[in-house]
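Margin note from the TA: students keep mixing up input and output lines. Inputs are the sequences; the output is the structure of the whole complex. Example:
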Amino acid sequence: MELQNDLILRAARGEKTERTPVWLMRQAGRILPEYRAIRNSLSGFKELVETPGLAAEVTIQPVDILGVDAAIIFSDILVIPEAMGLQYEMIEKKGPWFEKTINSATDIEQLKVAEADDLSYTIDAIKITKERLDGRVPVIGFSGAPWTILSYMIEGSGSKTFSRARRFLYTKPVLAHKLLDKITQSTINYLFGQIEAGANMLQVFDSWAGILTTEQYKEFALKGIREICEAIKAKHPELPITVFAKGAYFVRKELGQLNCNTIGLDWNMDIAESRELVGSNKTLQGNLDPCLLYSSEETIKAETERMLREFGPQRHIANLGHGVYPDTDPGKVKFFVDTVKEFRF
Amino acid sequence: MELQNDLILRAARGEKTERTPVWLMRQAGRILPEYRAIRNSLSGFKELVETPGLAAEVTIQPVDILGVDAAIIFSDILVIPEAMGLQYEMIEKKGPWFEKTINSATDIEQLKVAEADDLSYTIDAIKITKERLDGRVPVIGFSGAPWTILSYMIEGSGSKTFSRARRFLYTKPVLAHKLLDKITQSTINYLFGQIEAGANMLQVFDSWAGILTTEQYKEFALKGIREICEAIKAKHPELPITVFAKGAYFVRKELGQLNCNTIGLDWNMDIAESRELVGSNKTLQGNLDPCLLYSSEETIKAETERMLREFGPQRHIANLGHGVYPDTDPGKVKFFVDTVKEFRF
């Protein structure tokens, strides 16, 4: 199926684009009343993730309502631990919670390597999304990065410090690598399934990247991401991959050497410095402060245009530096999207 | 009173020291069973903060038990908002909680500028500590930085994103500056009181520095810290001041230009890069990963010595890159302290 708008794919590959493409992390979600209506009719967040027709519907909402240049499949990074054997609950206003966590060699041996079939609800949601979108915009598939997934599997919930997970890296490095390998293999299987279902590009989210030391990030986190990129690129060299390692300012140079197309920047990362560290062969994505969308349209316009100029006309995908916050006015989100779309260098 | 050990003061001033001084953030606290025994005999954390004799006792415990080169007065950064008129509770396993938060001009007008007398419990705790220590080691006084204090006063509790506080900066910048000025003035009064009570050096903690954009940090956070440093130095030019802005890697150069002696580094910050950005006229403090103290003595020793070599023999105060985690084995903490004390270049 021919894409009517492939701006984001061309930007990721470093091809010339007429304008900068734009989307938002967490664009399919609580900011939209249309999302909340569907979500509130269900038992919980996970029912929405696991119901392909509805997941597809909320995936497409921001394309219709906000006019973004890509749809990202509505799902959750924690479907991977679940497919490997660790059930979790998403507790309202608290976040994820796992009854069982990983602590020993036996715990790790008991985990299965997930196959795409174990995650058929997301695979099916992508198929339905592709069908319904009918080529209007590309679909982004995604996964968590192995370190972030491991941190939840050990910690059992969110944490301010993730000190249990980091302790595991210090005290049980061999087991940590075993677990990371199993997560990495599961993630590769899952992402292949997403591509077969029609995902046009992929993003790997390393949400807790910023909490590791440089040495630990290189040893425990980069390896899995590198393997994921290599495995995907070996089979699908043209499919763009984005790596977003939030807070990992200290390894931007190393991220720039990955076999991927785009590096996501958070709002603390200086654009010129990041370009220098990442190199000229990668596209950059980001990086407005999500809180900027609480300001006046005048401020949003000024800051968005300043950002666009700073990134320059090519090799940039406009986005926030993190997921859009749930209490953001969708009118302001649309204003941000429109500002990017109307801007010309 | 003559100090028997003034290593940390000399290191802060850039004078030659026989060895690197060492202390830990949160050394007076839950890691020590001796602390927990006192804490558990009371109604809560705040009773301990507000009882000078007991606050002094837990302040001195790590000097006796761990052999650190300084005592930091046991208190809490949130005593300032309370002295300004916002009561808070410290809820077990959850953190601080304010019933009333700041949202309007009237809210800010109703706040008082705190005087040292409003915080006499900490002032008295310093006096008692000084008396009991009898010159064994210097006493560090401290406060939160104005941005971090403002963030709690607006948010009302801890937060993963502090998005309400950041929204306030974007939407009500004039009010934000008014509130920051009032916090800054209160903090200066409080720190003067601490010095008069005998504090030998001061540390300003900007715990939520890393969540602001570079522009916002310069506009809203640095100004107050700068004013605090200037006010203290105008009256007490010889008293060393440390600024620890956790996560604010993006303004290390600007921090290096403050009228203070020492800049604290967190465990993500590269030592050589930080030295270059901060400049050669400041002492650096830090910066081992607190999770390192979960590892074997062999690893702790190797990593501590690697860090000491990287900082070099002068202008370094050894510490972790954040407060010691409460579940750390005190034996390991002592081993870290001893490793620093026994190391020779």
